[in-house]
Specification:
Low-confidence stretches: none
Structural class: alpha+beta
Number of helices: 9
CATH superfamily of the largest domain: Recombination protein O, C-terminal domain
Helix content: 40-55%
Strand order of the largest sheet: 1-2-3-5-4
Strand content: 15-25%
Distance between the termini: 63 Å
Number of domains: 2
CATH topology of the largest domain: de novo design (two linked rop proteins)
Shape: elongated
């Protein structure tokens, strides 16, 4: 049975690219179709009725018409605009990291409703306030798990022995944590403090409501971020552009006014 020419879907707008003078190509993440793309014609014109419903980091109900190469978006209605993500630089920067990771790791046209729900819940939590840094770390570990790149954090990835928290390091190339014996002679490993290793383990294995109160000082929080950023860089063979923007936002926030 042929697919209907017109179809509708929930979608989170995770990327947008200019096309011609007034159009955009939008990348959408959907619960039943996975990652898809569509052309929004005339959406960059001031009077476009679609523009407000197709902004980046928006959860919308979208209507599309199938095309030969790309489908065309002919209608959209906002479900949640996540307005704080567009008015708060730090929350918006964290949200951009989340959607860029989905765009990079999720294959096209492959349904993954748990990943859609994870992204939706993460954007909602970031918009609601609270721990932006820790929420993003929880999201990163859950996405890596869903994408098939779950790092081994409970035992030494090499010898499989239980880890001693005071003597462990993370190796992106090995895909997880090494004990002190297996780390000898290894290049590009990151020593882990007991607090950071414990946080990694809890964030990987427990739902967000159970770990949202983990206490980390600024140094441990930064180390936790850099370990996962290093792992993502290794997997993608490049840095996330949104991570660079997040660093810029931090510098702006730290500059005396």
């Amino acid at each position: 049975m042929p697919k209907p020419r017109t179809y509708q879907t929930e979608a989170i707008i995770i990327r947008k690219t200019k096309l011609g003078e007034a159009d955009r190509v939008l990348t959408l993440y959907t619960p039943d179709l996975g990652k898809i793309q569509g052309i929004a014609k005339g959406v960059r014109r001031p009077r476009s009725k679609l523009s407000g419903h197709l902004e980046l980091l928006t959860h919308s109900h979208v209507t599309l018409v199938r095309g030969r190469n790309l489908d065309t978006i002919i209608g959209s209605q906002t479900i949640d605009s996540f307005l704080p993500l567009k008015t708060d630089l730090m929350r918006g920067a964290c949200a951009l990291c989340a959607v860029e990771m989905v765009n990079q790791f999720a294959p096209a046209d492959q349904e993954n409703r748990p990943l859609f729900n994870l992204l939706l819940e993460t954007l909602a939590d970031l918009a609601a306030g609270g721990r932006t840094d820790l929420r993003l770390r929880h999201f990163e570990l859950a996405l890596l798990d869903a994408a098939g790149y779950r790092p081994q954090l409970q035992r030494c990835v090499n010898c499989r022995r239980p880890l001693l928290a005071a003597r462990a390091s993370f190796s992106a190339s090995a895909g997880g944590v090494l004990c002190a014996d297996c780390d000898r002679g290894q290049a590009f490993t990151y020593p882990l403090t007991p607090a950071v290793l414990n946080a990694l383990q809890q964030l990987q294995d427990r739902p967000w409501p159970e770990v949202c109160q983990i206490e980390l000082d600024n140094l441990a929080s930064r180390q936790l971020e850099m370990v996962l950023r290093h792992y993502v860089r290794y997997l993608l063979e490049r840095d996330l552009r949104s991570a660079e923007w997040l660093d810029t936002v931090r510098r702006i926030a730290a500059t005396p006014q």
